[in-house]
User: Which sequence fits this backbone?
């Protein structure tokens, strides 16, 4: 399935019924995008304003990324066609100018229902959980 | 946990439509074949552990400055 990632889901609220692996207790999130921080966005835990994940359109780091979304997840998310889905990768900040993104377990969100899931792609073996994000050399 | 003894070539069936077969035993390596409908995801445990560990590293407890991206091959409007 081929997908695109816009700045933010309209309405901004996202529900992840199965949570994020390791954080199953958090199911409600706000997807927030600050134009100055594009193409990054924030997935903030709705019940806890201080907890969030940084997410990004994975195709920015890897234009030929081809995640294979398992059929069970396509059904779980009620995706009728690829355009129904928003795709994000979770970013790990590892230093002032060092970041990686998780290409094995992207977030797939149904843009109509705002229901999402951290999906383990069927071709996870082809990708890294710590794919380096191409950051610019340190500037001001 | 249910524990079953199986010999090489023997199987177990889960929920009537998932068959797990011991293909071969070589020293401490067991080759396992899984026959399951395509709707049933099958992954090594390590993939879950790896993603969970990465999620724990990625969780932000406070806002931090985000890095600037290098020029990317993909151009977007705006």
Assistant:
């Amino acid at each position: 399935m081929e997908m695109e990632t816009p700045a933010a889901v309209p309405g901004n609220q996202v529900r992840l019924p199965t949570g994020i692996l390791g954080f199953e207790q958090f199911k409600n999130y706000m997807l927030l995008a600050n134009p100055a921080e594009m193409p990054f966005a924030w997935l903030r835990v709705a019940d806890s304003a201080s907890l969030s994940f940084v997410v990004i359109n994975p195709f920015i780091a890897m234009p030929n990324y081809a995640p294979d979304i398992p059929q069970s997840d396509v059904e779980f998310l009620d995706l009728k066609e690829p355009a129904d889905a928003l795709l994000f990768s979770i970013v790990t900040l590892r230093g002032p100018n060092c970041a990686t993104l998780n290409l094995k377990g992207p977030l797939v969100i149904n843009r109509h229902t705002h229901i999402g899931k951290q999906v383990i792609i069927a071709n996870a073996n082809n990708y890294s959980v710590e794919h380096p994000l191409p950051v610019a050399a340190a500037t001001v | 946990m249910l524990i079953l003894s199986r010999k090489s070539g023997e199987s177990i069936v889960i929920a009537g439509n998932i068959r797990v077969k011991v293909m071969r035993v070589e020293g401490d390596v067991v080759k396992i074949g899984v026959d399951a409908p395509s709707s049933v995801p099958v992954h090594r445990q390590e993939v879950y552990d790896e993603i969970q560990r990465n999620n724990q590293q990625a969780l932000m407890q406070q806002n931090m400055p985000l890095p600037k991206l290098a020029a990317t091959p993909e151009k977007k409007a705006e």
Summary: The radius of gyration of chain A is 14 Å. The longest helix of chain A spans residues 71-76.
